[in-house]
Amino acid sequence: MSKANPAPDQGLIEYKVDRVVDETNTDTKIVVLARQDGRPDSFPIWVGASEGHAIKLALDTTMTPRPMSHDLIKGFIEHLNVSVRRVVIADVKNSTYYATVYLENHGVERTVDARPSDAISLALRTHAPVYITQDVLSRRNTANIDSWLAKLDNKTGNQQELRES
Amino acid sequence: MITQMHLKGLMFDPYNNAYIVVLRDEDGQEMLPIWVGKAEAGAISMALENVAPPRPMTHDFMKSILDAYDAKVISVVITDLNENTYFAKIHLMYEDSEYTVDARPSDAIALALRSNAPVFAKETVLNKQSSEELEQWLENLKPEDFGKLDS
pLDDT-derived band of residue B74, with 50, 70 and 90 as boundaries? Predict the structure, then answer.
């Protein structure tokens, strides 16, 4: 387990979850991240339906009768007196994004490897910032992603899925 | 009183479009069916079949966090089953103290399997959930209803 602690401002761009869009043809959802500073550079991540649902619940601060899986993770870290410092989407291999969750307790930072969907679900529930490295941003295929996303939003007509900003 | 339960299987319930986790006690006297969603069934099935996914699934991530802090899952207890609301407690050992965390049985079982922790059921749950109900349900089941987890 790495205890490395890169400064959060070194090559990291802060993002926030903008919306969760249904991919009607497949059993997936698209989590659209937007830059925190408002610059137009959306970052979509394809996730499974249940992972997307978990993010949507947190985004809408929907209360569920029973704790969902990421609520349970939040419950654990609260019991352990651990805080989630930040989530970093730090790598991409074969179109799969890799996230690192930075945890802290008693001034000691520890990192845990995660899928971006789990990391983002937990970040939303713990109000932790989400970053993407410059490296990942420069290595993705950005061709027309914004117009493509706009088209998808229109096509699926998921107005209820779109979050007012 | 609590009784230790073992995971006997997982099957698809076509009538409710859900999955059933079947728990049974040591001598097969008591059977406890728990209805869970597709994602939850997947999380249990992966641990049951010892499948190592290329990336950590949600409960693997959950376990990684506990491991990072040397917190151990001691046991899991199914405490109540109401119509659609199921209750479980996860007993956790961390820095010489025991903590009890509220969870859904599906999360508790998925985590217990990954932690090699025993699963118990409260006697009141077993009494409430008569196994006759499940046996009747099983009798009505067609062979093709089995083994649909991968679909």
Answer: very high
Locate the domains of chain A by residue range: 12-161
Say if residue A160 is exposed, middle or buried (CB neighbours under 10 Å; 0-12, 13-18, 19+): exposed
Residue B39 at interface with chain A, using a CB cutoff of 8 Å? yes
Say which of B69, B84, B107 has its CB closest to residue A69.
B107
Whole-model pTM: value is: 0.85
* Predicted pLDDT at A3: 44
CATH no., domain B2-142: 3.10.690.10
Q: How high is the ipTM of this complex?
A: 0.87
Range 43-82 of A in CB contact (< 8 A) with B: 48-51, 54, 65-70, 72-73, 75-77, 79-80, 82
Interface A–B counts its CB contacts (< 8 A) at 81
pLDDT above 80 for B95: yes
For domain A12-161, the CATH architecture is Roll (3.10)
Cα(A79)–Cα(A93) distance, integer angstroms:
34
In this prediction, residue A159 carries a pLDDT of: 43
